Amino acid sequence: MQTIGELFVEITRRYMGSGRPAYMRKEQGSYIGIGYDRLHADVLAYALALDELGLEAGDRVGILSENRYEWVITDFAVLLAGGVDVPMFPSLVETQVAYILNHSQSVLCAVSSSYQLRKLLNIADRLETLEGVIVFDDVPELPERLRDRIKVYRLRDVFARGLELQRSVSVQETMQLFLNRTRGDDLCTIIYTSGTTGTPKGVMLTHRNILSNVEAARSVIAVDERDVFLSYLPMCHSYERTTGFYTAFASGGTTAFAESLETVRTNLREVRPTVMTSVPQLFERMRNGIYAQVAQQSPLRRKIFEWAVAIGLRRLREHEEQGRISAATALCYRLAERLVFRKIQQAVGGRLRFFVSGGGPLAPEIGRFFWAIGLPIIEGYGLTEASPILTVNRLDDNEFGTVGKPIPGVEIRIDDSGEILARGPNIMRGYWRDPEETRAAIDAEGWLHTGDAGCWTARGNLKITDRIKNLIVTSGGKNVAPQVVESALKQWEVVAQVVVIGDGRPFCTALIVPNEEALRAFLRAQGIDASAQLAELCKDSRVLRAVMRELKHYQRDLAKYERVRRVALLPEPLTIENGLLTPTLKVKRKEVLARFADQIERLYSNLSESS
């Protein structure tokens, strides 16, 4: 298979008539399945309607929507009809949407709701190439003045027209005509990187780029038609699109759409997935949530939990060091599973085989905890420019603190500066309408310069140390990878978010967003009154001293120059909404440094007090 269209035709033909759901979505309080027969018919009708609307091979089509069935069929229909889709985060504001649609020269845009439609209508006068909008939800008739500015189609009407056209054509011949429009090296999608700084760049990925990545991933991560996936990460991002969408589909598995980020915990119990892609932030929240619940239980139950986790870690350590589990540990683990772990496993549906973690570094302690309780996490590494997967740990070859070995077909090397370079069939064609940035990213030998620093472990696994541009050089000339320090601090459940600072400074400091419940429990255990508002606690000198004393324990394995000497506690979290996180939940360090400049300066005042 050379194109996404060919993948779609092959998989739908294989499972049509099977009665198995390709997708599941929540309707009227419960999940219902959508079979391959309906999927095939919907996509063909959609593609026929797009063709009649004048979509030509290579035309760009924006998608501005949350994860849902309509997102999937829009993607398949656009690609089948020969188009190139341009997915966008639904959280983007109007100016960002206008930039992407204009820069990509999109002729159509599919949106999920009247809320997203309103964004386009508000900027219609600024959209240079857009000719029409397709809306998934039913929307009322537009006022005359708005209909003059932009042509809006309801998806139900697009379907109806497509079904009419379908009655007068041969399905098989039409499918083949569509497939003939696209080749493997043709452009499939333009994904605009959210970026932590600067203007977003449009990453050009071909059909071959993505499919080579899908097949390589499937060869090392065992998924098949029996698997059920729960999708909550944005499909507009390359990580979820390749792993949670295309890889799941190519395997014949079933994908259920989470209703929202807030309902993931409930949806896990409803869908009972066997595989789930996620990001480190979710695992951190899950572990903190488990410990918060345990803290409220009786002393006996707390001791049983601590014993069970210790047994799980011992079992893990024996397997790592000896390649086998002792009979005594195996017996204790079965008891721990019955008393403790099974309840936690049931909270995520009871049949999860493994999680996949990407999009950022997973602290080794978090990984070990989940493996210990019977919920393995496979950590990988990649970037949008690589479609995105470059390396991944394997279930039978996992090394905590690393991102595993390269997937088949991908070459990785580390240059003299410590930067990770990658080459393979998954590497992007370049940046859309930006040859200068393309030349800066991909050298004459085809190596993609990732911007990440890393090294190899003795076992041949890749270890990411940090983003090269994030590396801190103290005023004393010491190089500090903030990611390493932040991972150490986040071992403590009180630390929900952390940003380490120190570039050009005499020592490292940190901005910490505390887990409020864990912070109050810690303060009570220290004999400190924890009844005040969180904002007041964050400014209390007694609280700050107690926090620093505790953090020394978590920094004991760091070099002296790496250790954080002072901290500021922030009562409000870093979020997408307040502009301090990217849509993929990465910290915008530049914005954080600007927003909290005063607090940072206070951390470096009275230097004589810091030893």
Molecular structure report:
By secondary structure, this protein is an alpha/beta fold. Among the domains are: 4-183, ANL, N-terminal domain (Rossmann fold), CATH 3.40.50.12780; 471-609, ANL, C-terminal domain (GMP Synthetase, Chain A, domain 3, 2-Layer Sandwich). The protein is built from 22 helices and 26 strands. Strands 4-3-5-6-7 form a five-stranded parallel β-sheet, sandwiched between helices. A five-stranded mixed β-sheet has the order 12-13-14-15-16. Strand 6, helix 6 (144-149) and strand 7 form a beta-alpha-beta unit. Helix 1 (4-15) packs across helix 3, helix 2 (36-52) crosses helix 3 and helix 9 packs across helix 10 (238-250). The protein is globular, with a radius of gyration of 25 Å. The mean pLDDT is 94.
Total strand count, please?
26
From the N-terminal CA to the C-terminal CA, the straight-line distance is 63 Å
The overall pLDDT, averaged over residues, is: 94
CATH classification class of the domain at 4-183: Alpha Beta
Categorize the overall geometry: globular
Number of helices: 22
Largest sheet: 5 strands, parallel
- Major β-sheet strand ordering: 4-3-5-6-7
- Percent strand equals 15-25%
- By CATH, the architecture of the domain at 4-183 is named 3-Layer(aba) Sandwich
CATH fold name of the domain at 4-183: Rossmann fold
**What's the alpha carbon Rg, rounded to whole Å?**
25 Å
Low-confidence stretches: none
Residues in helix, %: 40-55%
